[in-house]
Design goal:
Blueprint: H1 2-14, H2 21-31, H3 34-37, H4 40-51, H5 61-65, E1 74-77, H6 82-87, H7 91-104, H8 112-116, E2 123-132, E3 139-151, E4 160-175, H9 178-199
Helix pairs in contact: 2-4, 7-9
């Protein structure tokens, strides 16, 4: 029994970065036993949350090289639901957190005008989905961060606007504290910064 448990934990750790909605829901249920007490409806809600951002991790050597030579990035944050903003987590909070981390790392944050006039129009896409559980007052969330820029397919000389050239994958979790969600975003940004600096030495 112990060996089976250890093997399950090992598999779950290896799969952490896989962005598949059902697997993400199972991971969350395993990590947070309280979810089991909420019944199957919790898993359904979590799957719905994950389905809103089907972004597979793209962190290969080639993907990382797509960050080389970038002089800066524009930060684009998706909207946060009004109920969540009322509780204290706003789009502006997330944007400020991300931009501050980038600037501290020496990565320029572009204004809209600068972004529009920069070759490739690169931007860091931040998608934070949050849903509030009425019964427990907890928040289930997913965080996706990706570098998007205009690109040209090899087979066809056309410009693809906002193609995802790098991403770290999705984080899914549950918490009572909205600050934990902000911390999760910062953690994903740290991974972007590490990758960016590694290819722009």
């Amino acid at each position: 029994m112990k060996n089976k448990k250890q093997r399950f934990i090992l598999i779950r750790q290896r799969r952490t970065r896989v962005n598949f909605p059902l697997l993400a829901a199972l991971q969350c249920l395993c990590r947070y036993p309280v979810a089991l007490r909420l019944g199957s409806s919790f898993a359904i809600v979590l799957c719905q949350l994950s389905l809103t951002s089907l972004l597979f991790a793209s962190d290969t050597t080639i993907n990382r090289l797509s960050l080389r030579g970038l002089k800066g990035v524009y930060v684009k944050v998706e909207r946060i639901e009004p109920e969540i903003e009322k509780d204290g987590l706003t789009k502006n909070h997330i944007r400020r957190d991300v931009e501050l981390k980038l600037r501290k790392a020496g990565i320029k944050t572009l204004s809209k005008d600068e972004w529009f006039n920069t070759i490739g129009s690169p931007y860091l896409y931040v998608n934070v989905n949050v849903m509030k559980l009425r019964a427990s007052k907890e928040y289930i969330y997913s965080v996706n961060i990706a570098l998007r820029q205009n690109a040209y397919p090899v087979r066809e000389p056309i410009e693809v606007i906002g193609a995802t050239t790098w991403s770290i994958g999705e984080i899914v979790g549950i918490t009572y504290n909205l600050d934990k969600i902000r911390s999760s975003v910062k953690g994903q940004v740290d991974k972007f910064i590490k990758t960016y600096l590694a290819v722009n030495r």
